[in-house]
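Researcher: I'd like a candidate sequence for this fold, 536 residues long. If you have to choose between options at a position, lean toward the conservative one.
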């Protein structure tokens, strides 16, 4: 060691040439990284569960405002050493099969929707808007399962026991095998499951439950995740089938983290207009059956009753002699449904005409109207168009296109369609009619119901062909101003100078209206002149 380094060490500082020396001349090593937990704070969105290292006013994932809350988390660094757990992999062919046998829920149609009924140890999630009938339907299922000799636990976090009893009396499902608790604690539900060992658990709802050892209010993302995890673990270990009720957001999606849908075995959705009497149950996920099934319920005083044949259920009290209505053979979840599509075309007094769509995507209506204007040479720029699907249901079937444009043309020309005509088919941007899914099933169902003619892919090829057959109209290739001048008995003016210029559009007015207005204006302009002449 040099004299300079020795002097530096005696002075209490560490020189550059002796990085590993300490006062006294001993050699030391830098401290090794230890496997100690570190506490750090992050911000978590209470709506979607997104995390951020800093507070954000607007969540970039879900778009909600003021939803980030600070949370303290503990992270343990990885050591690189893994302890053996004794778990061994086995060939998949030697894996043990499920020995638990599914049992019926009391509705044969609902058993078919679920695949094989209610499977012990499975978890089902039912979502829907408030007042749509989720609690009523699940209480009916609980009563039917109890009548078959199985014990049912109904855990309510939204209602009192008196309210649950009043609904059970109205539905006539009171039974000694139906046990009920009113609590918002997940531990109470877990302890009751361990004590009673029921065959079915109805949890209403997962957003109202809370775990005492998890921070946050009930309905928070962390609480929903913790409650769902704990209930699923208990039900699968005890062999209890669980029916969870889930809330939905304003957009119709299930509230809480997306992880909730991945954790459960089946995801069901109960949809419909609360002002209507029918409800639609769709399957979004099913590990025990098909996810392309659908049921139609009718809400009555005695509860939710299944409509056995919903094919023509939405055509009740329909008047086929009115213009602007068309029957469409739609297909939802591989189930054909005959629904009515209504359209209304009226004169617009606005600078931008209105386009209103109820029961389907409004962008589809705008797209189809653009095709009609292009292919049939129609002037819809000063026409308000309203379209809806009868019955208050919402459809996303591409086969709705042909019936929708037919209803719009029927209202535009004010000509009623054939009373027993039915339509289905997709229309592309060129006005051609394309095939759709489940076409053979639609044909068989339309034939069974006695509809004729059946207009679809194969019977018509383009929208021009459809307009010529139903309304005896052909695409007018003359410019709009030339057609208006010919209708008024005038000589059409020259529309364009060269090949690239466009023809101006004629104003939207009736015949003779323009001449009368110009005459009145001319008389009004001459009256002041005559008055000044008399005074002079």
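Model: Candidate sequence:
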């Amino acid at each position: 060691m040099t004299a300079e380094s020795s002097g530096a060490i005696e002075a209490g500082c560490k020189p550059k040439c002796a990085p590993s020396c300490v006062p006294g001349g001993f050699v030391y090593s830098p401290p090794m990284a230890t496997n100690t937990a570190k506490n750090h704070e992050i911000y978590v969105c209470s709506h979607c569960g997104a995390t951020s290292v800093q507070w954000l006013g607007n969540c970039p994932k879900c778009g909600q405002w003021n939803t980030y809350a600070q949370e303290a988390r503990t992270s343990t660094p990885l050591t690189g050493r893994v302890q053996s757990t004794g778990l061994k992999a086995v060939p998949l062919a030697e894996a043990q099969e499920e020995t638990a046998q599914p049992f019926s829920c009391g509705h044969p149609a609902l058993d078919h929707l679920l695949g094989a009924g209610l499977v012990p140890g499975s978890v089902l999630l039912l979502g829907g808007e408030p007042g749509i009938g989720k609690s009523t339907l699940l209480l009916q299922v609980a009563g039917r399962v109890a009548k078959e000799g199985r014990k049912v636990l109904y855990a309510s976090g939204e209602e009192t026991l008196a309210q649950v009893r009043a609904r059970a009396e109205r539905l006539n499902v009171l039974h000694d095998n139906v046990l009920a608790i009113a609590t918002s604690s997940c531990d109470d539900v877990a302890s009751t499951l361990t004590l009673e060992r029921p065959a079915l658990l109805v949890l209403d709802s997962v957003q109202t439950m809370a775990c005492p050892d998890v921070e946050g209010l009930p309905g928070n993302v962390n609480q929903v995740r913790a409650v769902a995890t704990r209930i699923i673990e208990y039900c699968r270990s005890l062999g209890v089938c669980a029916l969870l009720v889930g809330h939905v957001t304003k957009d119709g999606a299930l509230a809480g983290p997306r992880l909730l849908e991945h954790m459960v075995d089946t995801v069901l959705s109960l949809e419909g207009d609360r002002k209507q009497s029918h409800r639609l149950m769709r399957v979004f996920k099913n590990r025990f059956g098909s996810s392309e099934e659908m049921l139609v319920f009718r809400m009555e005083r005695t509860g939710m009753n299944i409509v056995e044949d919903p094919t023509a259920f939405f055509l009740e009290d329909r008047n086929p002699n009115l213009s602007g209505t068309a029957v469409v053979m739609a297909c939802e979840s591989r189930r054909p449904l005959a629904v009515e599509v209504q359209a209304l075309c009226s004169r617009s007094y606005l600078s931008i005409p209105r386009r209103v769509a109820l029961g389907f995507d409004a962008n589809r209506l705008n797209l189809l109207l653009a095709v009609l204007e292009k292919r049939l040479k129609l002037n819809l720029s000063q026409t308000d168009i309203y379209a809806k699907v009868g019955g208050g249901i919402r459809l996303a079937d591409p086969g709705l296109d042909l019936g929708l444009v037919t209803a719009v043309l029927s209202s535009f020309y004010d000509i009623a369609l054939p009373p027993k005509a039915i339509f289905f088919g997709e229309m592309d941007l060129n006005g051609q009619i394309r095939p759709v899914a489940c076409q053979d099933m639609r044909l068989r169902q339309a034939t069974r119901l006695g509809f004729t003619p059946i207009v679809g892919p194969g019977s018509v090829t383009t929208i021009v062909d459809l307009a010529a057959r139903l309304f005896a109209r052909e695409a007018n290739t003359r410019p709009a101003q030339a057609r208006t001048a010919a209708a008024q008995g005038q000589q059409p003016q020259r529309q364009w100078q060269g090949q690239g210029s466009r023809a101006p559009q004629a104003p939207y007015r009736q015949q003779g209206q323009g001449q009368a207005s110009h005459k009145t204006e001319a008389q009004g302009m001459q009256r002041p002149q005559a008055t000044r002449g008399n005074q002079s």
